[in-house]
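Example 3.2
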Amino acid sequence: MSAPPPGTRLPGTRPHGTRLPATPRTGRRRTRAALAVAALLGGTVLATLPISSAAAAADGLAVQYRTGAGGATADQSEPWLKVRNTGSSPVQLSQVKIRYYFKADSPAAAYRFACSWAVKGCSVVTGTFGTLANPTPTADRYLEIGFTPAAGALAPGADTGDMQLRFHRADWQTLRQSDDYSFGAAQTSYGDWNKVTAQLAGTTVWGTAPEGNDPTGPTDPPDPTDPPGGGQALFDDFAYTSHTDPALSAHGWNVRANAGGPGVPGAIWAPENVTFANEGGNSIMNLATSSAGTPQSTRQTEILTKDMKFKNGTYAARVRFSDAPNSGPDGDRIVQTFFTINDLKAPMADDYAEYDFEYLPNGGWGEPANILYTTSWETYNPDPWQAVNQHSEVRASYAGWHDLVVTIDDSAITYYVDGQHFGTHDARYLPERPMSINFNQWLIDLQGQTSTTPRTYDQKVDYVLHVKDRVLTPAQVAARVAAYRAAGTSFTDEVPAS
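Structure, written as tokens:
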């Protein structure tokens, strides 16, 4: 078999993640006609494209409520809701947030959310908990109900239909509802209820929040000890001493030392080049990749989770990209990454998946200068090279710190950089099997800079976060990370094994 193109890997090697973005090709589950339509619509979504504000011309919403469990005490709270479009324009439900306010039974109490039944389907309904910035005698927490893009739009005058929602204490202790702001014991049939609030595209359009807690204001931090059902999280602040720190392995990380692609054939994957330090009060991981112009002198770096247990939900990391080496000549075709991936079982296997942020500070893959790619993979064949993927790109410098977020739900993969929409890839590229979470830095080849003078590039990582089966906005990601740090939590992993 001939050598694979730069950036590819052979089947059977441990996943390392990065390849040349390619025009989608027909896989076993798609037709050429469908891909042709996709090409006509544009497979690439540039960050410079405007984001439409669905419901910008809408007049508002109304929320109806009834309780499914009307007693002052119960084993769970059942706020059943309907959302109605009272305006004259369609409303995208993905831009709607409903808050139900309640008083925690104890400061340490944790809660779990569930959807029992919904006209639109429970799969499109999300629930997360948060802590109010200004607690009152009847509320210090809230349950925020949202919708995935698959929920679609509400036409003027239409409503969502019944949403039979519930939440309970994680320890299943009895709930006291009599002191909950949004609870209505007598509300046993649906009626307008202004003790819940509704936001549309970030603006409050219905209801009255507990005093001093307008949800249109600064985002209240979610409770990091309180993942809703299906919202278990992995968070790591990378507070380790070295690549040999026993806690690093105990927390599920593997620092790569085995040979193989991607990158320069014959290069070494050097675990000792993954180091940890404190910068600006935060613990930082650094991946140092170096070369002196030969395969034998090239040291590449990678760290990845041991388990492939991550699938739908939110992935986020704060990463510092570098445009130039610390010293020595610049120009190497280096790739700096954050991605999630599983293994290719066979060439063109349909259950392969990979979702990449890849920054090329000096170009490569036919690009003359810096470029940032986001790429969603369906499958590939290493020899002869074939690829089925969709990518977005921006040709600009991304040197410095950046907040990277990718969300995966049942309808799309959406990428954000520094809180701004970067690209959305369609449902053809959704994962079918769980994946690992990876960071690596490697050289495509040695042609960009042929000097034998040593040089080293740094890629730094501040934190990583995954929230299972929950789509968070970049602002919610930032709030959640801030809440973990405020609580002194440097590591947690609640995500169940696959």
